[in-house]
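Sample entry (127 residues):
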Amino acid sequence: QVQLVHTGGGVVQAGGSLRLSCAISGGSSSRYSVAWFRQAPGREREFVAAFRQNGGYTYYADFAKGRFIISRDNAKNTVFLQMDSLKPEDTAVYYCAAKQGSPILSQTRQSQAYPNWGQGTQVTVSS
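Predicted structure, serialized as tokens:
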């Protein structure tokens, strides 16, 4: 059973940066598609970024383009989310999620496509 463990959340001032990590155990990260989602209080969980296993293509939500980068280090079995130019509206609990192989292309940005989830990590951006 694959397990996902987050590190890297915290409190940062607006304009600052954070790098979230998602360590994958119980399987090789090279075999998985991985996505990041976030959920702010009172709001639905939303897609942030994804890395598809086949071809290594990346996908971003509009709010993440130009500020966030998803990457993977297969030697460390870890997926990263580098977040720059953070804004108070980025405050949320961030989750990584994984699926062995790749989801149907049209479902890449949908949470139900990923059966394995981490515990979440809080990101707070102060103004």
